[in-house]
Description:
NMO (chains A, B), oxidoreductase (chains A, B), six-stranded parallel sheet, TIM Barrel, 2 domains, 11 helices, two-stranded antiparallel sheet, flavoprotein (chains A, B), homodimer, alpha/beta, nitronate monooxygenase activity (chains A, B)
Amino acid sequence: MIAVNLTFLPSISPPPYEQYAKVIIEEGIKVAETAGGPAAIPIIKMYKEAGIFVIHKCTSIRHAQAAEKVGVDMLSIDGFECAGHPGEDDVGGLLLLALAARKLKTPYIASGGIGDGRGLAAAIALGAAGVNCGTVFMATKESYVHDNIKQAMVQADERSTTHIFRTLRNTARVFKNKVAEEVVAKERRPGGVEFPEIAPLVSGARGKKVYDNGDPDAGVWSASGVMGLIDDVPSCEELLKRMERDAEKVLLESAAKVKRESKL
Amino acid sequence: MIAVNLTFLPSISPPPYEQYAKVIIEEGIKVAETAGGPAAIPIIKMYKEAGIFVIHKCTSIRHAQAAEKVGVDMLSIDGFECAGHPGEDDVGGLLLLALAARKLKTPYIASGGIGDGRGLAAAIALGAAGVNCGTVFMATKESYVHDNIKQAMVQADERSTTHIFRTLRNTARVFKNKVAEEVVAKERRPGGVEFPEIAPLVSGARGKKVYDNGDPDAGVWSASGVMGLIDDVPSCEELLKRMERDAEKVLLESAAKVKRESKL
Lengths: 264, 264
């Protein structure tokens, strides 16, 4: 099944979101992901009127509750650990998902910081119906990114990311390279930085060169600390089978630790 | 059983750690927690020579591995969500504990962001032998903190904390009040701040007034976003029974979701 994601965030060249959404509806797409701020709301309404199953990705309980009111079918709850945009609240997944279990009525999947069977098992324990992984799939055989980048991810660890755009309140977690460090240095300068000054550093065209040409320092590129869990470059099938098998083992072993007191 | 914690971190009036440790040994204490930087190492060695069971609390895998080499008996792995000192690596518990399961040989307990049965169940799934909770115990009947503060914790949510001392590389997560916000504002000022200027704001004597007199704005005080999970002020017995019961339920229900394929 084909599903489509539209994310509504500040962009150097904002796409015509409403026109994109119309095409998605006309093409008969059955599942759509939305993400980002209040700009997502009218699109969610368009999708719902067209009978599309909508998964809304958000980084906070209050945003999830706002999306519930518009009638999304599923939420993707994105903790602080995630690659890309973690929002500005900085609540780690372990806590955010425990809160989601209490505060949300809509089914949710867990995003951010999950890269193996233990993470999947923990997400299930935290009430999630499943997980939403990005970083681990970048380092698979089928991924289109250059092999140099896959190897850079194998070498990297959980400390190999940084936050850019923090001072612009549009925080993004990216691979910690020279370009990202230059952006952060400019942001931390007395008086901070205006976006136009760093725009040439963070352009999508430069980021694309990373994936195409395999130079990890060509631009900024999204990745999470899940790189610390990446030791090889499996096929997607191997990765998923491993995650599933390990999660099942962990869940069964964890349940076996429960010692019920005698009811006699 | 009485256990004692000694934490080695920058302090306005550093205590005589070695003398404290000698008293702990002389008094026949059997379990000791250590935390903080390399200054903990000689104390861990002293404890081990005296036959004490040592639990070392740390915020990163590499620090945990360093403590393993000195022979600690157990690790307490403290994720980004924690109250007090989360370190400077900012790795959320969901990821940090999955890494711990792979990288550590020593048994570990999970700290930070855990305030209910789901958090406990997730920690078990992430390979922890148990959990180390602080914030939830502050809002219990037995806790010595003023009832106003317990009620402030019930009212607070997961966004009610902030990080002070970030620019001094001695980050601490505290309740987000006027004093904490003043410290953060001074740290963010062009040119930053030197510790002596903020020392009067963050003194332990002022923090103690918060707990004693019940004014949440009297000084800075440690608390984590786990406040979002605090809805009442139970006794410690009620809190622990609830956590245990809920964690058991979650672990059994999660394991029941595992559908083993037929082996026929």
